Amino acid sequence: MAVAQTATAGEIKDVTNLFTGTEGTYLLPHHAKEIERLKEQHALILFSTGDVLVTAPLKQSKIKVLDCGASDGTWLLDLPRLYPQHEWSLHGVDIGSSLFPPNAGPQASLDLREFDIRSPTAPEPSWEQGFDLVHQRLLMWGLQKSEWATVVKNHFSLVKPGGWIQLVEGQWVERDHPFDPVTHPNLDKMYRMQWWCTENFGKDMFVAYRLEELLKEAGFKNVQKKQFTLGYGALAKSPEWKKRSVDMWIHTFRGLGALLPEGGIPGVLRNKAEFDELMVNLHAETLELGYAPRMNFVVAQKPE
Fold it and tell me: How many C-beta atoms lie closer than 10 Å to residue 175's C-beta?
């Protein structure tokens, strides 16, 4: 877990096995087991989308791609497997190099670098207007609300004229129709806890709704969105994923317990014990009733 703080949050306990270079930036769990969760999440997205990684209409045979927030390179490594008609040059950046795998076996094909995407200066000059595709997925918890426009403009400078960008973010809760606290009391508490965490730590819980606008403002054209539904628990798309999806999801939110301030979250939780109880109840409720957030794949083209 990246250590973060606000005036009202008080002291937050450190979590062991920290990845270096992410302190104060990334609010979800950020220890060694997080790589396992990210791979599970990647597998769920692949299953839910029918093995879709890219929705941009890439036509050329050779593609130089940059994954921003690459973690251990799982997304990059699946590109040649799922899109063998292209010859891929695989590049990735992440704010912390501790996530990078050893440079051996399939991973030897990856060019992974420690880099902060909030920086306007590329790691090397050849990266300027150097990529056919720039990809970024699920950084709601990693970027401040005020940083999104800057980051997308930085990406614009890395895309070749005529090249594409793809942003992928989840509509984890419907902005205008959140959960009914009577029928879904624990999912409602989960929503209100997420809202509190994102508001108090400067994140944008509903950034998935703004992706098209951000891309247009940065200068991209041909903006297109494709939406997929992820099924958790009772709404999983196969029996295999019913419990597996809920286990993964609860593992994610257990990390938010480290962000609880003294006195808890008004109207939601009073202390860590109530948080732990919520995790148990949320697991049971999702298995029984299900949870079906949407994943937005938004692509856009840089003008020639």
Answer: 10
Exposed (0-12), middle (13-18) or buried (19+): which is 108, by Cβ within 10 Å?
Answer: exposed
pLDDT, tens digit, for every residue of 196-226? 999 999 999 999 999 999 999 999 999 999 9
CATH number for the domain harbouring residue 55: 3.40.50.150
State the total domains in the chain. Answer: 1
Residue 162 — left, alpha, or beta (φ > 0 → left; ψ -120 to 50 → alpha)? left
Among candidate residues 92, 157, 160, 156, the one with its CA nearest the CA of residue 132: 160
Bridge pairing between strands 159-171 and 294-301: antiparallel
Per-residue pLDDT reduced to its tens digit, 84-106 = 999 999 999 999 888 899 999 99
Residue 263 lies in a domain: yes
Q: Read off the pTM.
A: 0.89
**Interatomic CA distance for residues 119 and 137, integer angstroms:** 18
Q: What is the pLDDT of residue 17?
A: 36
For residue 293, being part of any structural domain is answered with: yes
